[in-house]
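Re-run with default settings, no changes from the original entry. Doing this only to confirm the output is reproducible before filing.
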Amino acid sequence: MEHLRILMIASEAAPLLRTGGLGDVMGALPQALTEIGHDVQIALPLYSAIDTSTYSFESTDITFPVSVGGTLYPTELLRYRVGDVSYLLLYTSHFCDRPGVYIDPATGTDFPDNDERFVWFCRAALEAVIRLEWPPQILHCHDWQAAVLPALLRDVYATTPTFQQSKTILTIHNLGYQGLFPGNQFERLGISEALNAPMGPFEFFGQVNFLKAGIVMSDVITTVSPRYAEEIISSEEMGFGLQGVLQKREKSLRGILNGVDYADWSPNKDPYLAYRYTASNLSRKRMNKVELMNEAKLPVRENAPLIGMITRLAEQKGLDILTDAADELFARDVQLVILGSGDARYEALLQELEDQFPDQLKVYLRFDTALSHRIEAASDIFLMPSRYEPCGLNQMYSLRYGAVPVARNVGGLANTIIDVDVDPDNGTGFLFDAYTGEAMLAALDRAIARFQRKRAWTKIVKTGMRQDFSWDRSAEQYASLYSELLS
């Protein structure tokens, strides 16, 4: 296989910054690609949210102006290295020196100039590799924040020698977030007005849509599981208004399942756990459960399964059906620990439920990496009642940690969980179809009944712990796609 120069363009990347699954992917996929011989660099804004006292950045002594709508923003390029992956950190004070990443903490809403911010970022990424004299063969753009880059490549950089052999890939991590802006703001971006004409790449019912432009103008589109690729072209609910645009690009759309970085997510070597364990010493998993129950001030109930949830508190994640069914859920002999933050409405509802069911529910309203690992290790069941789920990572973490997933049969959940009652020999979890509290509770009841049969439960746990969703397979699929595209 040819060794390729690949530039990843993303708005977040572990370990420097992660607010969700995109950051995890960007911390793992580039490393996996370098391990099979490719030269990978990641372009990332140097937000003030990145702790510069924790990480040591290298100066490149490269500065350059970046034009957005005729205004020049002086931009500095710094480097950070993790193994063989080089992070290209792009900084300009006007767009980077502010609290928050996407959302203004003072208002709780998106920064109103996010369109200009991410046009600056995409142009800065292209300008950086020009100055580094490192012509990328693949420009791999992730989500709406990078989706404007293929349009810039065709519009502003069409004759630039650095990119004459470059191909573009757009990976959609979540179609529900599209980068929508008022139509009258397009003129301030410095992109040809023709691209925002009616039915043009950017135009979307009178608004500007960055993700639509990326879908129309990239060479190939991928998304993060095979099932989700099917859902977004066949379902109005899953397509979020872009299903028609995606149908026109169906031959260029692929679903490649995300992977898990088992260097970070393995219970036998997890530094966040009080007791490390494997499938052969599950008694130590129970010791982690007791530790968490004590930490959460929940009574330890030997025969009551502990259900874990680690989630963004948003409608997508099934919080509406969970809260609606709470009375019926807690009529069962179960306990639930939830870690997450997000929609203020769900935060308030969950706090009310915690007050109502203090012996059965503990809610942590924050982002906490260490606690997320402890919840995975402590949980008997992991609940993911998502309305839609492009890939999902927590169900794959849960399988490795012996927390049996109960999840809706959508997206990446369907690609990674085998229902125990469909395939008793190879089953790893419990799936439900209808997006209702009743369907969720029925799946939980199946899991609870199996939990009471210890030998049958242990078999499910151990089958799940043997599953392998490492990044190696995903990286090979991306590498094959790159080679196919270049040929």
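The chain has two domains: 5-259+471-486, 283-465. The radius of gyration is 23 Å.
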